[in-house]
Every structure is written in C-alpha cells, then in structure tokens.
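We examine the record.

___
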Amino acid sequence: MNRTKKFANLIMYFIFLNFLVSSLLTNNLNYKQISLKSNIFYPKSSYSTSNVSFLALGDSYTIGQSVAYNERWPVQLSTRLQNSGYNVGPVEFIAQTGWTTADLSTALFREPSNIPYNLVSLLIGVNDQYKGISSEDYRTNFKYLLNLSIRYAGNNPNHVFVVSIPDYGVTPFINDDIQKDVIKKEIDLFNLINYDESINANVHYINITSISRRASDNLSLLTYDSLHPSGKMYSEWVDAIEPVIKPLVGILNEDSEKISNSNFFSEYQNYFLILLFLLAFIGLVLYTKLAHYLISQKFTGLDKNKQSNVFQK
C-alpha cells in the first residue's frame, strides 16, 4: 500500500512539473493593459519600448507655417516632456499648409509607417471654414479622420488628443469687422462639431481658441505674415496641452520600463526553461532514488523481522 502511495505521489509530482513548464511556455508575455479609459488589451510589441512615439496630423497650424521647426507646438510639447525627464521620440508630421479635412484624408490613403503610435494629435478644419465647406461635410470628414487617428494609436482613444481650431479672424490678415464676426461664428461652429465628435469618441480635447484670440491686441503672438501663430503663441498652446498629456506620457514611460524588464526574461526565456527542465529532472531523479531507498529499507527491515521470528521459534 505504501509503495503504491509513493508511486502515486511520484506521478502527481510529474504532473505538477508538466503544468509548471506549460504555464511558463504559455505565459501571456505579449499583452499588457495600458488604457486609462478602457479595458482593451494591446500587444506590448505594438508600442515603442524606448521612446514615446508621437504622430501630429493637421494643417499649417500643426506644421508651424512661418516658424522654425523647434517652435512648432508639437515639437515644443515633445521638448518640454523630454526636459521633464520623459522619453519622447521625434515628432512625426503629416500636415501641410492649406490642407482641408479632405486633403488630409487623401494624404492618409498611404498609412504612416510606424503604426501604432503612443500619441496622435489632430488639429484640422480652418481651411474647411476658409473654403466654405459645409459644417455637415466637415463633421463627416472630421469623424473619419478621428477614427483613423484612434486606429493609428492602436485603437486606444486615450492616446489621441484633438486641438481646437484657432480663430484667424482676429489677425490683421482680416481687416473687415463684419468678416471677422462671420469667421468667429463659423470657427465656433466647427469647434463645436470637433468637440462633440471628440467627446463621443472618448478622446482628449484641448481648447486653444481663446488663446488664439489674444492676438487681436498682441501682435507678438503672430509671425511676420500677420496670420499664423508665432512660437510664443504656440508655447501658450503647449501650456494648455501639457497638463492633459503629461500624465499619460508618464504612464507610457512606466509601461516601457516594465516592458524592458520583461524583455530581459523574454530574451533569455529558452535558457531559463532549459535550466528549469534540468533542475526538475534532477529533482525527479533524487525523489525517485529516495523513494526507492526508503522502500528497500522497509523491506530489508521486514526480512530481518521475519528471520528473528524464525530463530525465536
């Protein structure tokens, strides 16, 4: 009976060993939860494990018409985050002066090369208003671009932020008061649309329109063309954007560190498994020998007892 029990224990030990090894082999190392607003899981390998990747979509306000590269607001945002100790890579731009929502959509027929991105920004619509595109068409096109932006962010809306359209009607470029008022109303309408769609899509929204209107009495907020924002105004935009984005970037950086740590195990996983097999095999052999020894000792003791009983008789 005892011998059968020890053999059963040996089988149970072997089953446990197989279960342990199988668990390690199938351990879910490829997924992590990084969303703050959803329970969607994304492959770890999807996102950058070194620098936070940032894609900026838009028009002249995103590309920074008439300002130096380092004065563009996405670059200023990236620089501030880097100066705060966050790992943010170079900004990738898909933006051009004069683009409408339809132009940007056409440009995105060819997808960006580094999908998915950790961060995606979208600022588009001023040229739709300028060219007289209807609010209905703007909504349709903006919604399409917003869905693309979410997809470029790994289908995670928490990694997307929309920036409102600035009001160029306050600039010296527009010198008719009636036209200024029309522009203001239409910009407000378009911003109402992009705000509504952003809330519905559960993405971040930053309103910088009120900042742009300060240019009405402060020309230092405009470039030499008296139309586009200066680096100084873009810096004020970043003042509004940074508090919204910074916590997310902090979480992304923490996730990157965790991924780097787990990558150490992933890189040497085969060696760890071989070592585990060897240790398990040695343990199994020692357990078997010990069980065999104990059983043999017991039978030896029984034989001696039988012999002593014979002599006593």
